[in-house]
Design a protein that fits this description.
The complex is a heterodimer of chains A (about 240) and B (about 425). Chain A has 6 helices and 12 strands. With about 240 residues, chain A is of the alpha/beta class. A 6-stranded mixed β-sheet of chain A has the order 2-1-3-4-12-11. Chain B is about 35% helix and about 15% strand. The chains are: A alpha/beta (about 240), B alpha/beta (about 425). The interface between A and B is large, with 38 and 35 residues.
């Protein structure tokens, strides 16, 4: 193992403005599972207008209401370059719903207002006429992902932009093309709340593994009792939309 | 238009026919609404003290119950809608029973509990004289969309109110509704002393390490009601800054005492100086909890408390309220339509207070359709779960068999209905009002 013994610095983006539908559960899951895998972590927050923290090993951000989104949009553009650097440097990131949209090129609201994104993902989002709401299941490189979607934005991926998952049940990016979410290097964007990570531990562990390998050059996973998660996943897949 | 007499006759006849076939129905109300669209407006607009609308996410049932009792103690005749019928056709259905043959409602005032969406529908037909807005919290967002949207619905209610509005001073989204109150209308707040505000984290500030509640809180007016102190069942209220003598309440939990402050503010607004403070406070001590809001069932000499939880803030407050009274705990979480399908909300509640200690042993039983989601949530807060059994009847039987002493069940709405039905087979469970 390398000499680096510093804890993994987990950055929670906009915990006040962009944190809805249990997105905190994703942060909690990373902190807990990293601990169960024998890794130390340190939770760092970034708030609008504040300097972007240094030495970040993972970035997690959630969804928000329209009001929350407008509070962070300027700041996100301001820290966009930092986030691009981290993404290209293989820092794992998970962005849900609102922040997923803003990691694309832009969000155009139903009123025709264009909110610029930071373009880590090659995608664009347009406000839609209705909310896409309900239980959702997708097929992904991390196994089936189960969650709950609740959004009105319709996201279209460029042809060059890989999706995170393919829809088994639900609407996903736009309710049309069966895609859900997006992947760039180790950056995952998705509409899945639920919370996402607790019921999808393989994705949580993939994020932790990527951060550990990048920081320490090694990841030694421990066996975690995921019995409750397995049962919860099985039931979630059977529930009505 | 139909003559009012006929509306009543048709409604009553339908009710009789349907009752013979068994079970209640909103159909009579629906038919009345179709045949006589002005029925609701005409009947309710005759009331000398008008209509009071109680809305918001949490605490409507308990607060409405308190307001009705306090107004009755003040000498008024009150019409109210039964719990669960809080949409216009449900109100129409219960009005059919309450009006006389001439179509008149023999009441001084109507107090109606309405959820946010139904309140908007209602105020389009009937302008309330008073409205009370309790809170805007995450509740079944898969139905209403977003919190901001809910706040907009409530703004419509405030706009439609003709005389007086009572707002929650501690909820930033409700406080902002003051912008919708023009100077011709009366505005009062109910609030908390600074010491108590920490018990009520808002959805916005619960996660961040920063303290964000920077929006200025208005200084108390003498007609505002502030909940100053809570010790066990004892609470002290203040009219503005003027403390009243402490009283002993039958309802449990700080959130219910905060609801009492809301009820007091509204009743003092409606009655003005016509009623003595001591009469209101005395009556408040007599209010019993509404079903599922801290009611206790006697299980062979041991109390079993049933606590309804339906959103993160409600669950947080319930846990905080009971933290100092250890009990054997069961949690039952369903995701039927009435509960809300989204399980995300469980991750916005902290369950540390249920961890094993010298006096309590974690959670004895987790149940419901989404019992495993709940167990998973508890795992991530290091709370020991002794057993998961998704079938509620089986889980309840085992829970009662394996535990003794004080028991407490936190449950979602449809889980509570199953629990009450099961308990009623062997124990005395009060009928749902």
């Amino acid at each position: 193992m390398s000499a680096d013994r510093n804890p993994l610095r987990i950055l929670h983006l906009y915990p006040k403005e962009m944190n809805i539908y249990g997105d905190w559960g994703n942060v909690l899951t990373i902190l807990k599972r990293a601990g169960w895998h024998g890794l130390e972590t340190e939770l760092v927050e970034h708030h609008p207008g504040k300097p972007f923290p240094k030495d970040i090993d993972m970035v997690i951000g959630g969804g928000g209401q329209d009001s929350g989104q407008s509070l962070v949009q300027d700041d996100l553009v301001a820290i966009g370059e930092e986030l691009h650097k981290l993404a290209d440097d293989n820092v794992p990131m998970l962005v849900i719903c609102g922040l997923y949209q803003m990691f694309g090129r832009f969000f155009k609201t139903v009123d025709g207002v264009t909110i610029p994104g930071i373009g880590i993902f090659a995608l664009e989002t347009h406000g839609g006429p209705k909310r896409l709401i309900g239980n959702i299941v997708t097929q992904s490189p991390f196994g089936d992902l189960v969650g709950y979607e609740n959004h009105s934005g319709l996201t279209t991926l460029d042809e060059s932009q890989p999706a995170l998952g393919r829809i088994i049940k639900g609407d996903g990016n736009n309710g049309e093309d069966k895609t859900e979410g997006a992947i760039y290097k180790c950056v995952f964007g998705t509409y899945l709340h639920g919370s996402l990570l607790p019921k999808n531990p393989s994705l949580a562990d993939a994020l932790i593994e990527a951060a550990a390998i990048r920081r320490y050059g090694i990841f030694e996973p421990q066996i975690i009792d995921d019995h409750f998660a397995r049962e919860a996943r099985t039931i979630a897949k059977r529930r009505p939309r | 238009m139909l003559h009012p007499k006929h509306t009543r006759t048709i409604g009553k006849t339908l009710k009789k026919v349907l009752a013979r076939r068994g079970g209640g129905s909103a159909l009579p109300g629906l038919v009345v609404e179709k045949l006589d669209p002005a029925f609701l407006q005409r009947t309710l607009s005759q009331l000398p003290k008008g209509v009071v609308v109680v809305s918001g996410t949490n605490g409507k049932t308990t607060t409405t119950k308190m307001i009705v009792q306090l107004l009755r103690a003040s000498g008024l005749t009150v019409f109210t809608n039964p719990t669960g019928s809080n949409f216009t056709r449900g109100i129409a259905a219960s009005l059919i029973d309450a009006i006389d043959e001439e179509g008149n409602l023999q009441a001084d005032v109507a107090v109606l509990e309405l959820d946010e969406a139904h309140a908007v529908h209602f105020v389009r037909q009937v302008k309330p004289r008073y409205s009370l807005i309790l809170n805007v919290l995450r509740d079944q967002l898969d139905r209403f969309g977003e919190i901001d949207h809910t706040a907009k619905l409530l703004a419509t209610v405030v706009d439609a109110t003709s005389h007086g509005i009572v707002l929650n001073r501690e909820d930033p989204l409700v406080r902002e509704l003051a912008d919708h109150v023009n100077k011709h209308k009366e505005l009062q707040y109910f609030g908390l002393s600074r010491e108590l505000t920490t018990l009520f984290p808002s959805d916005q500030n619960m996660r961040s390490q920063h303290n964000l509640d920077a929006i200025p809180v208005p200084h108390p007016h003498r007609n505002d009601v502030i909940l100053e102190t809570v010790e066990g069942q004892q609470a002290t209220f203040a009219w503005g800054t003027k403390s009243q003598p402490p009283i002993e309440l039958k309802v449990d939990g700080v959130y219910n005492m905060f609801n009492a402050a809301a009820a007091l503010t509204l009743v003092r607004m409606v009655c003005g100086d016509e009623v003595e403070s001591s009469v209101l406070l005395q009556e408040l001590t007599q209010v019993r909890p509404a079903f599922g809001r801290g009611e206790a069932v006697d299980i062979d000499g041991d109390p079993l408390e049933i606590v309804l939880v339906k959103n993160p803030s409600g669950f947080r407050l319930a846990l905080a309220s009971y933290a100092e009274r250890p009990a054997e705990v069961m949690i039952a979480i369903n995701d039927n339509y009435a509960d809300g399908r989204d399980m995300s909300w469980l991750w916005d509640v902290e369950f540390d207070s249920l961890r094993s200690t010298s006096t309590a042993a974690g959670v004895a039983m987790v149940s419901g359709i989404r019992g495993y989601d709940m167990a998973l949530r508890l795992q991530y807060d290091d709370v020991t779960v002794s057993q998961v059994e998704t079938s509620i009847p089986e889980a309840l039987a085992k829970f009662l068999r394996r535990t003794k002493g004080i028991r407490r069940i936190y449950c979602t709405y449809t889980a509570m209905l199953v629990i009450r039905r099961e308990l009623a087979k062997n124990y005395t469970v009060e009928a749902i009002e």
